[in-house]
Amino acid sequence: MTQPPFIAVEGPIGAGKTTLSSMLAEELNLPIIKEIVEENPFLGKFYDNIDEWSFQLEMFFLCNRYKQLEDTGVQYISQNQPVISDYHIYKNMIFAERTLKGVKRDKYRQIYHVLTDDLPKPDIIIYIRASLDTLLARIEKRGRVFEEAMDTAYLEQLMADYDEAMASIALSEPETKIITIDGDIIDFVENREQFHTIASQLKELIHERIQHT
Ligand SMILES: Nc1ncnc2c1ncn2[C@@H]1O[C@H](COP(=O)(O)OP(=O)(O)OP(=O)(O)O)[C@@H](O)[C@H]1O
Ligand SMILES: Nc1nc(=O)c2ncn([C@H]3C[C@H](O)[C@@H](CO)O3)c2[nH]1
C-alpha cells in the first residue's frame, strides 16, 4: 500500500522553499508544515562562530523538526491526508555533515537515526536549485540580520552538498519522486504560468498516488 503523498520542498538557503511551499499549499488546499526560524536562539551566534555553536544549533534544528513531524506529520499521514512541508528531515544531515566534526559528528549521527528512522519520509521532493548569485541576491533581499555574517564559501559548499544528497536519495529511494526546478530560469513568484505548471504537475502526482493508496 502507498502512503498519501507527503511532499517536501527542498533546496539550499534562500532557494525559495518557504515561498513555493506556501504558494502550493494555498493553490492545492494542502496543510503545510513550516519551519520556525525567527525563534531560533543559536542562528546568530552560529553564523558568527560556526565551530563554537554548530552542535547546539544542529541539535536545536533536529529536535524541533522531530517534534513538528511527530506532532503533525504523523497525524496527517495516518489520516490519509496529503501534506506539504518546507523541509525534508534529511536536511539535518546535509548541514550537520558539513558543520560538525569528530566525536560530535559521530554522536549527532547516532541521535539523528534514533530520532528519525521511524518518521514518515516525503515521497515527493521538489528540489529548487539556483546559482550562487541568485541565492545571494535572495538572501540579501530578505535581509535577515543574522545571515549577514554568512560566508559565501559555506553557501557554495551547501549547494554542492544538496546536489549530492538529492542524487543519493534518487539512488537509494527510487520510489521517491524528485522534481527539480531551476530557480534561475523558473520564476514561480513573478510568472503565474510557470507557477501553475509546477502546481499542475504536483496535483497530478497527488491524484495518482491517492488512487493507489
Ligand atoms: N522565484 C523567486 N523570485 C524572486 N524572489 C524570490 C523567489 N523565490 C523566493 N524569493 C524571495 O527570496 C527570499 C528567500 O525565499 P524563501 O524565504 O522562500 O527561501 P527559503 O529557501 O525558504 O530560505 P531558507 O533556506 O533560509 O529557509 C524571500 O525574500 C523571497 O520572497
Ligand atoms: N546549520 C544549519 N543546520 C540546519 O539544519 C539548518 N536549517 C536551516 N538552517 C539555516 C539556513 C538559514 O540561514 C536559516 C533558515 O532556514 O537557518 C540551518 N543551518
From TrEMBL:
Domain Deoxynucleoside kinase: 7-207
UniProt KW Zinc keyword: no
Keywords, ordered alphabetically: ATP-binding, Kinase, Nucleotide-binding, Transferase
Binding residues for ATP: G11, P12, I13, G14, A15, G16, K17, T18, T19, R138, I139, E140, K141, R142
GO terms assigned for molecular function: ATP binding; deoxynucleoside kinase activity
Active site feature: D86 (proton acceptor)
Pfam entry (one): dNK
Top-level taxon: Bacteria
Any one GO cellular component localisation term in the record: cytoplasm
Family to which the UniProt record says this protein belongs: Belongs to the DCK/DGK family.
Name of the featured protein: Deoxyguanosine kinase
Taxonomic lineage: Bacteria, Bacillati, Bacillota, Bacilli, Bacillales
